[in-house]
Amino acid sequence: LEEVAGWVNAAATKPVWAKMTPNVTHIEDPTRAALRAGCEGVSAINTIRSVLGVNLETLRPEPSVEGYTTPGGYSSRAVMPIALRMVMEIAKLIEAEFPDRSLSGIGGIESGADAAQFLLLGADTVQVCTGVMKFGYRLAHNLCDDLLAFMERHRFETLDDFRGKSLHYFTTHSDLVTRQAAARAAKKSEHDAPVIRDDAQWSGDDFVDQSDSLARG
Predict the structure, then answer these.
(1) Model confidence over 90-141: pLDDT tens digits?
(2) What pTM does this model have?
(3) CA-angle at 102, arms to 98 and 104, nearest 5°
(4) Which of 189, 182, 191, 180 is nearest to 215 (CA)?
(5) Any bridge partners for residue 54, and if so which?
(6) Which domains, ranges and CATH numbers included, belong to the chain?
(7) What is the pLDDT of residue 217?
(8) 107 closest CA partner among 93, 124, 125, 126
(9) Of 13, 55, 62, 74, whose CB is crowded by the most CB atoms within 10 A?
């Protein structure tokens, strides 16, 4: 990818963005390669390779051409959580290693609220394809109106006022456990079951109360 992106950038007379596939384990790796090769930025995500299903009468996969098919690209609303996760990962990479590059968010966007989430996770712009195919070009007007309403509600004057604002609330699982334990300990009253800090503290007689205490905490 880095080699091919380098060829393109060497010949291009306009800025180049590389569109990232989600069909990888770590989307940061191809992103880093494209940006090292000189791309002005990346867009993410492309569609997810998928099989729609199998017809239980004909026993052929669907959709088909003369009974045969090939895995296709899954898109629209269902991919938005995956797209948000990958945009977040790319935004963190760009912030740390390529602060002068840009990111365009794609994946299930159908409203201003959807667009705002991508921007909050560090996207510089957003793109819509399937949404326009479903709802027509009026979607763009509705999206802009909804996004403006969101900005007015939070008193944001520009996109830069909130771009990436939610990015830094992502942490590790171990840190979440530590934060949760600290919050629970702070709220415990002397009548509650003791806070469970390791497996040895579980009691066969009290495990129901201990579990309930964890859930309430």
Answers:
(1) 999 999 999 999 999 999 999 999 999 999 999 999 999 999 999 999 999 9
(2) 0.83
(3) 140
(4) 180
(5) 61
(6) 2-168 (3.20.20.70), 173-216 (no CATH)
(7) 52
(8) 126
(9) 74
CA angle 97, 103, 105 (to 5 degrees): 140
Gap between the Cα atoms of 11 and 112, Å rounded? 37
Radius of gyration in angstroms for the set of CA atoms belonging to the chain, rounded to a whole number: 23
Confirm if 80 and 108 have CB atoms less than 8 A apart: yes
Q: Which residues of 118-155 are buried (b: 16+ CB within 10 A; e: fewer)?
A: bbbbbbbbbbbebbbeeeeeebeeebeebbeebbeeee
Helix (H, G, I), strand (E, B) or coil at 87: helix
Half-sphere exposure of 33 (CA within 13 A, CB side): 13
